[in-house]
Every structure is written in structure tokens, then in C-alpha cells.
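Recall from the previous chapter that SMILES is a line notation for molecules. Here it describes adenosine-5'-triphosphate.
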Amino acid sequence: MSERYIPAHTIDYRSKMVVVLGATGTGKTTGVKQILRSSAKRALIVSLDGGEWKGLPVTELRCAKDFGFTDVRVHLWDPLRSMNVLNYFRNGIIVFDDCRGYFRSATSDQLHKFLLLMRHNAVDIFVIAHGFTEVPPVFFTFATDFVLYRTLDSITRRKQYISGFTNVAKKVEEVNAISYGKRPHPKNYNGVDGDGKSLAGRKVVNDHYCDAIKNG
Ligand SMILES: Nc1ncnc2c1ncn2[C@@H]1O[C@H](COP(=O)(O)OP(=O)(O)OP(=O)(O)O)[C@@H](O)[C@H]1O
Ligand SMILES: [Mg+2]
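With both inputs in hand, we obtain:
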């Protein structure tokens, strides 16, 4: 074997499929905005109304050539067209913010094919929801990472789909215990909100602690 041979298992070339969970107002959108800012990748935010992503261009997506953009854009979910047209996206990040609003009519077979294609197309997915039961089960079978804020619903309803169930369940408990009734936890608190504005002096009413864990 050549000395230049690089063992494939040392390279993590998988696309990410990150499940971001937390109750209302825990800081999910803010956290994902921070991740997008620190990543150099282009991104498409899928949203029902774009409400939490004001200031970003909303883009019409009808065919492959509408996908040439290199910045961060918002796509408003269209139940009739979105699933099909998103197949054209390659090399970047897709964020499904508040995902309970989409995928209602999609079968798990369709979603499975979609997620396989996204992985093949080098697309990283962030799927954001309030709790485990809002996310279609098939997303958990593809999940590489979890970002967990305080969640209220139970992970056990998705147990059979989560390969790292024991570890993830432990992390859920940990995050819930730390965030309960607390001010933002310093560990993940970098003092700016999702738009880069300082949070200094702002009245904080929620718990913003989160932690990340690999699914496995
Ligand atoms: N780490 C943090 N420290 C202080 N304030 C924060 C932090 N993260 C978010 N916030 C503030 O808390 C509020 C709610 O945050 P955000 O909108 O990100 O929550 P969310 O989980 O997306 O809520 P929803 O479920 O309603 O979509 C915002 O005003 C935001 O600026
Ligand atoms: Mg949000």
C-alpha cells in the first residue's frame, strides 16, 4: 500500500444532520444563526413565514438554476412544490426552522429518499423543533448530532430511531436540569443575539442553556 494512502475512516466526510430541540423561546433560532454566521457555507432557511429570519433575502425556487446563490437565503415553504424543488440544492446548509409545519403530507419513504439525496449532495441539515415528537422519525435515523435546549416532551417516543439513545437521553436530562429556572448559562453564552447585537442589559426571561452531543 502506498505511503500516501489516507485511511478513509480517519476522515469524517458525512454530511451533518443536526436535530435542534428546545421549548419555545429557549434560543434555538438564535443559536443556529450563530452557527451559520461562523460557517462559511451557503445556506437556505426553510420557514413557514420567514418571521424569525427578517433581513435575509427571500428567494423563489423553481428550477435548478435558482440554486446558484452563495449567501444565506430564506425559502418560504410551499406544501405543493418545496419537497421536489429542494432536491436541486447541493453543497450547503438547509435549515428547517420549526419543522412541525412541513412534511405533513410526506410519507416516511419520501422523506427517507430526500434525506439520502441530501447526504449524497453534501448538504448539511439542521432541523429545528420544540421537542422529539414534532420531528418525523426518519430524521432521527439520519441524525449525526443533537443540539439540546430545555425540552418538555419525551425522548422515549423516538427511542427505536435514535442509535445513541442512552447517551442522548442522559444529555436531555442534564440540559433540562441545568437550564431549569436558570439565567443563560455562561458556557454557551457569547453575549450577542442572533443578529449580532449585544444582549448586555437585556432582560432575560428564558433559559438559554444548550449542549451538543453526537448521535452514537
Ligand atoms: N444565549 C442567549 N442569551 C440571552 N438571550 C438569548 C440567548 N439566546 C436567545 N436569546 C434571546 O431569547 C429570545 C428567544 O430566542 P429565540 O428566538 O432564538 O428562541 P427559539 O427557541 O427560536 O424560540 P421559538 O421556539 O419561539 O422559535 C430572543 O429574544 C433572543 O434574543
Ligand atoms: Mg425560533
